[in-house]
Amino acid sequence: MKKKVFELLTLAAASPAPVHCLLPHSCHVLQESLLSSASGYSNYRGILNWCVVMLVLSNARLFLENIIKYGILVDPIQVVSLFLKDPYSWPAACLIIVSNVFILAALYTERRLAVGTISEMTGLILHMFNLTSLLIFPSATVLSVPSMTPVGGVLSLGVYTVLFLKLYSYQDTNRWCREIRQAKAKRLTRSYSCKYITVHAHVTYPGNLTHRDMYYFVFAPTLCYQLNFPRSSRIRKRFLMRRLFEMWMVPTIQNSMKPFQVPNHLIWLIFFYWFFHSSMNFVAELLQFGDREFYKDWWNSETVTYFWANWNIPVHKWCLRHFYKPMLRKGINKFCAQTAVFLVSAFFHEYLVSVPLKMFRLWAFMGMMAQVPLAWFVSRFLNGNYGNAAVWISLIIGQPVAVLMYVHDYYVIHYGGTT
Amino acid sequence: MKKKVFELLTLAAASPAPVHCLLPHSCHVLQESLLSSASGYSNYRGILNWCVVMLVLSNARLFLENIIKYGILVDPIQVVSLFLKDPYSWPAACLIIVSNVFILAALYTERRLAVGTISEMTGLILHMFNLTSLLIFPSATVLSVPSMTPVGGVLSLGVYTVLFLKLYSYQDTNRWCREIRQAKAKRLTRSYSCKYITVHAHVTYPGNLTHRDMYYFVFAPTLCYQLNFPRSSRIRKRFLMRRLFEMWMVPTIQNSMKPFQVPNHLIWLIFFYWFFHSSMNFVAELLQFGDREFYKDWWNSETVTYFWANWNIPVHKWCLRHFYKPMLRKGINKFCAQTAVFLVSAFFHEYLVSVPLKMFRLWAFMGMMAQVPLAWFVSRFLNGNYGNAAVWISLIIGQPVAVLMYVHDYYVIHYGGTT
């Protein structure tokens, strides 16, 4: 009998393969696992939620304890004391209030230029003088006023740097408007179609040169000026509340993590979310500012260049529009222009760290300039997930090293050379 | 002069809005931030890489120290001693070797059925006897042999449970084949088209009833039998090496994390990756088994049901094909069928924990059954990212609680009631 079974089996196995399957119950298909890079799958929204849940849960106990003991953790007096050594002199706040002078100077110069009472050259000189003062005046103040704390210094220099970039964009854009107006007068230009629909009244040059328009731009979460920003149709109250809640919650979580000696890198990540997502979206929602692209998907960057071009979109947009592209138009080659952008970025990084700490060490400058060879190395030798891992490692290791350099030197200077 | 400026400005502002923009330099577009749930964006591959980099970096120091001190961390003697109290009696290994008897019993029963020397009823009874023995024999051995360690017990019971599911699928599928053959003989069935192209010879029933085919199925990373599994065209050596490296690396990392008191949940995540991605893909690559869907995107699950249906695809596929769908065909309603699946799953969870620990506490059983009301609650009250967070929290909190229950009771029994 056994022989019979085998005969049958051999017969069946040897029979020619049919073009159709006999079995309707096939339940396997040729396919890759999702986590294999070959699958091309990339939806990991859940992993992000996991990170948030782990962060919240791992701090929940301490967080609750702190709330029970001390109430809300963001102690207003402690926050204020960060800015003031002497509560009767508010140098940082005064400095920020004074910045209005520079804003109005830029506006009035533009008004003169619009009606032609001053020449283009005079206007340019006035603007350049105004912009240079915007960098020199606050740094001189920070360096000379002894009651200025480092945090107050960083904050006011930050405000002035943002204003510098904004007002540079303002004069550039208005000059372009005048050039178009002139070209139009000579019937040389074609009309440009409008890409967005807006419920707000449409403004044309020089109708934009109002205080209202200027201050809208100053407070709007962007560094690039344009007439008629795209506007959202209404303020979504729930969205606003969620962002406000995050703005309060995130520093609280961060505070409650201090005892854990959390890596510097994690603090930077949380800061990124707090500033670029919660705060900027909050301000934008309040101002009905429509363009919410404050960052792109830098977490997926496979090259260093991609990271720098996507983590801080307002600055990247400014660099591209007012620095990189004008250079290309002047015939400078791509690599030189890119290096120049990194140089300017390195200058501002150094400026924002050295002046408030009153310590000139060039670590921040060198850190930024080191990105150029690093970018070359990563793009040359690594790609895909390996490139991504290299970018993460450079962030995780690079930042704390740079910060440590300054902290070390700051302690050595202020508390004596203990090491 | 100031008046003139204002007149001009008012004029410009009041002029009717043109349909085209005067300014070609518009650089803002109405859009949402990527992290806003409204954007619909979900590519977070980089976040996954970040988790891996953080895991590796945060353990690198300890990892290197351990390697320098002790060499490779997976000490073979230590591993072996987990399975054996007495190295001269290898109960777990013996038990696994004996399992061949059941495999061959199933194959020979099928051969008899194929040629019709035994009736369908006799075959069914033989199979049921074989399958029942597959569950009773190893548990009786584990409970009666004193030299069996808990790890050895879990491992051998795991092997037997997998075999139980595989052989159940084997007899079910072969019976379907016979039914089709009979229907074909009566000219009642249409032919089914084949969905995949294979380079291997196509086999038809009963040509599949060979030792080679049976053992291929036993070792293949699936629980559902089918004739002519989809096969990959070749063994990719680099893929194989990467998975092998991971299979060695992942437990090493896990080992090096022990001193950190890492949450149980993280160990489960790492185990998931090690077993369902590295090991299963390794075996599949070696056997040129084409269907690599061992898990779906459970990390994005917004309901508990979605999680259970997607984290362990081999078991889910088996339940659907051999338990849930046959029940539906018999006219049982959906909810009852689903609850029955959870009941069977709860039984096996309890079986795999209670027997090796020789402790009957029903925690695992109740844990699984608690999923039914939990699933109802989450799907009723939460959705989107909130649902996802709820699933994560139930995983993060639920697993350690269940494990703790057993560990606590195990210590109380074996080391006296100290608490």
UniProtKB/TrEMBL annotation, chains A, B:
It is found in: Endoplasmic reticulum membrane. One of its GO terms (molecular function) is diacylglycerol O-acyltransferase activity. Belongs to the membrane-bound acyltransferase family. Sterol o-acyltransferase subfamily. This is O-acyltransferase. The active site is at H349. It comes from Sparus aurata (Gilthead sea bream). GO terms for cellular component: endoplasmic reticulum membrane. It comes from the Eukaryota. The chain crosses the membrane at residues 41-60, 90-109, 121-145, 151-168, 266-287, 360-378, 390-408. It is a multi-pass membrane protein. Its main location: endoplasmic reticulum. InterPro entries: MBOAT_fam, Oat_ACAT_DAG_ARE. The gene is DGAT1. Keywords: Acyltransferase, Endoplasmic reticulum, Membrane, Transferase, Transmembrane, Transmembrane helix. GO terms for biological process: triglyceride biosynthetic process.
